[in-house]
UniProtKB/TrEMBL annotation, chain A:
Pfam families in UniProt: Peripla_BP_6
Source organism (scientific name): Tepidiphilus baoligensis
UniProt KW Signal keyword: yes
Name listed for the protein in its UniProt record: ABC transporter substrate-binding protein
Leucine-binding protein domain segment(s): 32-400
Signal peptide: 1-27
Family: Belongs to the leucine-binding protein family.
Keywords from the named record: Signal
Keyword Cytoplasm: no
């Protein structure tokens, strides 16, 4: 009997405390659901990206007291980079107490595909930085999806642009032979339409070679490449298939500096296991690595110096994945700030207000400098029609110990990429019976 | 012809690496009748523990990370941890399942897989690590210069290691008392117990030996592709090898590995372009399936005869 009383008292106390917590949360907290992946095959990427994002939010809370006084709170859900679990996390994170999630960013093309028809119903914007699908850049057809900074199509175009720069002009690509080694999954194949059109435009040829998942054995593929004798290899692989590719390339005598990877091959985790075989390898990036950026130094000062950092290994602060996470955090916080300016300063915002803010987000050099992130990400300017906002990519080279920037921000071939985006989005709209928004009437 | 030879030899050497993983499966199946689904996870756990120790030991005891003895100390400690792991598996999993149907034991090892994966990343973190065993991964120069063949020194060393391991294990099973006891246990748990074979000790021994094989496989594969979660996927490469070579044959693992390695590479190069490429993940399974139809017990497996 006594035990029962204690139990009831505990339940009552926790209910009152919980209600108070929710009440105060509604007053001055902004909730975000984070579908992170900290275990499983891609945990190295997940811990970096979500760690950087969380650290940036901690910085905003610690240094600035939140966004106009609104404290940032978040809840993680482990997806293990698994599509089914990702969709489950989407549902689980939708609501916490009385607060609704205002943004969903799974950092996984598969999970993005899994939820992207749900988000308009739930009015939760889907942030898909650096992942598929590229045609969602057309905001008139996909108002709730934001493939910000650069899509796979822009990236593919920027890679060709970078190769053109290396050759001394785009016209010098004529007659060149480029092998495209891709991991046989949806993102690995997404760049093909752009590569095909650019090959036609500039007169180079491509030979596409598939690597089956997970890609931990590539001897046959690299022997084929060796026989083919291409001028360059474009590497569209992820996870273990990255160091495996670089090691096997070295084993078959293909020079690393002639291999150009996409951004999912351009983290420290992709090159360190390959050792010397990775020296000279070039990869794309929309968030370069480094700790020189003032925002990263602020995180070290205000978060790590107080022992509150999210990274188990603080040495990873400033790594490629980590800085990518900080970039996610900056976009989230800046959109939140903009939404508050429009809909009420010092108040939490909802999904629709967040969507408006993302669509009207402008991050110019001046603003990036004020945040301390100049060079950490390209300038952004989104609109109703353009949910990508930039499309620019820079390239960095692994010197054996760190990534060194070897290009400025490279513009994609907008004519080619935009035409593909509009064609594909229009086909999707037709298939699903969607009437595209008239962006000339949107504010 | 030179290209064909290059693909063939590369495939045979890769096959030896698959066999290295397959050996762990064979050992446990041979001695306990359990198909150990967790073998891939054990490879990951062993390699991650080794690398984790090489990082932490210098921090804990203040000696230089460059010290040559570090490798051996980490290796010994990893081996000790694998023995402890074997004891824990026997004490808390196998002991409760004596004489249960094979499918029950198999299901238990599936659960064990998830446990190991979680514990490994929990203990040592999710970071991808490089592992340098000091074996050069360059082509053998005289083969390159005389025959224009690119054969990796690393693959040759790894194949030699696998060969030595097979020889040692085959000797252990055929000519030692413990080996004979292991085979008796595999035949019938209860009959082995009735003639005085200490079942529990035998299981600890065999899981520990499979743990040592996992260390070797983990170090070789980890050195090749980095020590990361994907090491668990090496088990996927071993399964068709087992079907082909037979679940109970140590030399069968090697022969199966050679056939699978060579055929998947040749198929990828010569058939792949006609079907879109990337076929080396499923081609070995098709080959194994064909073998199953002709010889269900595999090339060297024991034929199972039930008397009625």
């Amino acid at each position: 009997m006594k035990l029962k009383k204690i139990w009831l008292a505990a339940v009552a106390a926790s209910t009152v405390w919980g209600a108070a917590a929710v009440g105060s949360a509604q007053a001055a907290e902004q909730y975000l659901g984070l579908p992170s992946y900290r275990v499983g095959p891609y945990a190295a990427g997940g811990t970096g990206v979500f760690g950087g994002w969380i650290d940036y939010m901690k910085l905003i809370n610690e240094r600035d007291g939140g966004v106009n006084g609104v404290k940032l709170v978040w809840q993680e859900c482990e997806t293990e980079y698994n599509n089914a679990r990702g969709v489950e996390c989407y549902e689980r994170l939708k609501q916490r107490g009385g607060q609704r999630n205002v943004l969903f960013a799974p950092v996984s093309t598969g999970i993005t595909f899994g939820v992207f028809e749900r988000v308009p119903q739930d009015k939760i914007p889907l942030l898909s930085i650096g992942i598929g699908r590229s045609d969602t850049a057309d905001g008139s057809v996909f108002p709730w999806v934001f493939p910000m900074i650069a899509t796979y199509w822009s990236q593919a175009s920027a890679i060709v642009g970078y190769l053109g720069q290396r050759e001394g002009g785009m016209d010098k690509l004529k007659g060149k032979k480029i092998a495209v080694l891709y991991l046989d999954f949806a993102p690995g194949k997404e760049p093909f339409p752009v590569l095909d059109r650019l090959a036609q435009k500039w007169g180079f040829t491509t030979e596409k070679i598939a690597v089956a998942m997970p890609g931990n054995e590539q001897q046959a593929q690299w022997l084929q490449i060796r026989q083919m004798r291409p001028d360059y290899v474009i590497l569209l692989t992820y996870g273990v298939s990255n160091p495996t590719a670089l090691k096997t390339a070295a084993r078959t005598g293909f020079p690393a500096d002639r291999i150009v990877g996409w951004w999912w091959a351009g983290a420290e985790e992709d090159v360190v296991p390959a050792g010397d075989a990775a020296k000279g390898f070039v990869a794309g990036a929309f968030n370069p690595a480094g700790t020189d950026f003032p925002v990263i130094q602020d995180i070290q000062k205000h978060v790590y110096a107080k022992g509150q950092g999210d990274m188990q290994d603080p040495k990873r602060v400033g790594s490629t994945y980590y800085n990518r996470g900080v970039g996610h955090g900056i976009i989230y916080v800046e959109a939140l700030r903009l939404a508050q300016e429009k809909f009420g300063k010092g108040q939490p915002v909802d999904g629709e207000q967040m969507r408006w803010a993302l669509e009207n987000l402008r991050l110019d050099e001046k603003r990036l400098e004020a945040i301390g992130a100049k060079g950490l990400m390209p300038e952004l300017a989104l609109s109703c029609a353009d949910h990508e906002g930039s499309g620019r990519v820079r390239f960095q080279q692994w010197d054996g110990e760190k990534w060194v920037s070897v290009s400025d921000w490279i513009e994609p071939d907008r004519e080619v990429v935009r035409a593909l985006v509009e064609e594909s989005a229009a086909a999707y709209a037709k298939e699903k019976g969607i009437t595209p928004r008239d962006c000339s009437k949107e504010q | 012809m030179q290209f064909f030879l290059e693909v063939l030899i590369g495939g045979l050497l890769a096959g030896m690496l698959y066999a290295l993983v397959a050996l762990g499966f064979v050992l446990i199946f041979k001695a306990s009748g359990v198909f150990n689904f967790a073998q891939g996870a054990m490879v990951f756990f062993a390699a991650l523990t080794f690398v984790g120790l090489t990082e932490r030991l210098p921090q804990w005891f203040g000696f230089s990370p460059e010290w040559a003895g570090l490798f051996w100390i980490a290796l010994l400690l990893t081996a000790a941890i694998m023995v402890l792991f074997a004891w824990l598996v026997e004490r808390f999993m196998l002991r409760k399942l004596v004489n249960q149907p094979a499918i029950t034991l198999f299901m238990a090892t599936i659960g064990l897989t998830y446990l190991i994966e979680g514990v490994a990343q929990g203990m040592w973190g999710a970071m991808v690590r490089g592992l340098d065993l000091g074996i050069s991964d360059e082509p053998v120069m005289w083969l390159l210069e005389r025959h224009n063949l690119m054969i990796s020194k690393f693959d040759l060393v790894a194949a030699a290691v696998a060969g030595v391991l097979v020889a040692v294990l085959a000797f252990f099973f055929q000519y030692t008392k413990v080996g004979r006891a292991l085979r008796a246990v595999a035949d019938d748990h209860q009959a082995a117990l009735s003639v005085g074979i200490p079942l529990q000790r035998i299981w600890v021994i065999v899981w520990a030996v499979a743990g040592f094989v996992a260390i070797v496989a983990g170090l070789v594969w980890g050195s090749r592709n980095g020590v990361q979660f994907a090491l668990t996927f090496t088990a996927l490469k071993a399964l068709p090898v087992l079907i082909l070579g037979g679940l109970t044959s140590v030399p069968g693992a090697i022969v199966g590995g050679l056939i699978i390695g060579a055929s998947e590479k040749l198929a990828e190069v010569y058939l792949g372009p006609y079907v879109g490429g990337g076929i080396d993940s499923w081609f070995p399974y098709v080959l194994a399936l064909v073998f199953l139809l002709i010889r269900p017990e595999g090339l060297f497996g024991e034929k199972h005869i039930d008397r009625v």
